[in-house]
Automatic annotation (TrEMBL):
GO cellular component terms given for this protein: cytosol; succinate-CoA ligase complex (ADP-forming)
Protein species of origin: Saccharopolyspora elongata
Listed name of the protein: Succinate--CoA ligase [ADP-forming] subunit alpha
Pfam families according to UniProt: CoA_binding, Ligase_CoA
Subunit relationships: Heterotetramer of two alpha and two beta subunits.
Domain of life: Bacteria
Family: Belongs to the succinate/malate CoA ligase alpha subunit family.
HAMAP family assigned to the protein according to its UniProt record, in alphabetical order: Succ_CoA_alpha
E.C. number(s) listed in UniProt: 6.2.1.5
Ranges that cross the membrane: none
NCBIfam families: PRK05678.1 (NF004230), sucCoAalpha (TIGR01019)
Gene encoding the protein: sucD
Amino acid sequence: MAIFLNENSKVIVQGITGSEGTKHTARMLRSGTNIVGGVNARKAGQTVEIEGKQLTVFGTVKEAMKETGADVSVVFVPPKFAKDAVIEAIDAEIELAVVITEGIPVHDSAYFWAHANATGNKTRIIGPNCPGIISPGKSNAGIIPADITGPGKIGLVSKSGTLTYQMMYELRDIGFSSAVGIGGDPIIGTTHIDALQAFEDDPETEAIVMIGEIGGDAEERAADYIKANITKPVVGYVAGFTAPEGKTMGHAGAIVSGSSGTAAAKKEALEAAGVKVGKTPSETAKLMREIVKG
């Protein structure tokens, strides 16, 4: 099993003709993703050949869905135009929009997030500023390397792209049902809590790894949710134990102030919810390995 993305997913790429869109479409195709077309209003009607596959470029997401049956869109549109691209996907009611683009203004992310809510949340948004989602051996929507792990029984949800890859590699001998990189921007679509519940509901996911970062209170809220709703074992890692207080680090998404938002505070909240928390990614992987073997 997998969450949000599986072998039956039909994927389109918004921005398929751009350099990033073309490059990662090729990588997704090589990893077995069923890409059925692309979207670029200025190049509608053209055909592009990528990895030996002829893909039609459609003018709109709605048209692409009508012609191909697509249910997933991966967005590789530059920040300036990303808001309109995501709104177009929401208005077309595509089931899943994976927004890879980095550098989207927070106001724009807030706008399309609110638009999705106002129209009934028919489109699940993953991202923005994220590596995407992979269900190993089934499908890969985004920029996650497909050759670092295989299918298995661990679910992974992570704010950090690079740490997603590291954890997948560390636990490659066990494998993953799905790995979701939710992104570290202040406003994102799918949250830790959304992914935790989806893994809880997936009969073939046996344990969950959750990776967070300093800043904000997403991990503390996830800890409360785990305590109340998640029965499967969860191990955690929080990036930023050595970060100086009072500084915004990387794309943590918020300024660390007082004890709120620090790695120590997040670790404490997670451990109070029964989550084993590693001080390093390798230690976290070791904790997961012990749970699976036990």
